[in-house]
Amino acid sequence: MRKEPPGGEELAIAAPHCYCGRLARLQTSWTESNPLRRFFRGKSSCGFFVWVDIEMPRRERALMAWLLRTKREVEDQIVRARAREKKLWIALFMSWAFVFMLNGKLGR
User: Fold this and answer.
1) Alpha helix segments (H runs only) across 1-108
2) In degrees rounded to 5, what are phi and psi of residue 55?
3) Closest CA to 52 of 106, 108, 1
4) What is the pTM of this model?
5) What start-end ranges are recorded for coiled-coil regions in this protein (predicted)?
6) Which of 17, 54, 67, 76 has fewest C-beta within 10 Å?
7) Is residue 13 pLDDT above 80, yes or no?
């Protein structure tokens, strides 16, 4: 049984057994064709797969795919901005070190 965060729906579905006899795991699809759709999956070797949710209407699926794509793009921009920030901090530190070294040589 899986419980959603407060305010969400409760999903009370018993996990089925896969072809291997083990309990299948509840997972969420993050693909553009089935965004946020939940499914049960067994071990990759047994090939067990069954959808839990009904398929979203085409318009909602397209909107959800766009939102997920936009989220990934923003996350990528954040990663690039943090990398740039790190390089700028290094350049700033190096310039300060150069100024202090130069100041020490000129002060003699």
Assistant:
1) 58-106
2) -70, 140
3) 1
4) 0.54
5) none
6) 54
7) no
Q: Looking at the DSSP assignment, which residues form a beta bridge with residue 40?
A: 26, 50
What was the pLDDT predicted at 103?
83
Distance CA 15, CA 18 (A): 9
- For residue 48, what are the contacts with CB-CB under 8 A and spacing of at least 6? 16, 18, 19, 20, 24, 40, 41, 42
* Residues 15 and 24 sit within 8 Å (Cβ to Cβ): yes
Which one, of 100, 95, 99, 36, lies nearest residue 63 by Cα?
36
Q: Which two tokens stand for residue 56?
A: 């979203």
Closest CA to 27 of 15, 39, 16: 39
Q: Tell me the Ramachandran region of residue 43: left when phi exceeds 0, alpha when psi lies from -120 to 50, beta otherwise.
A: beta
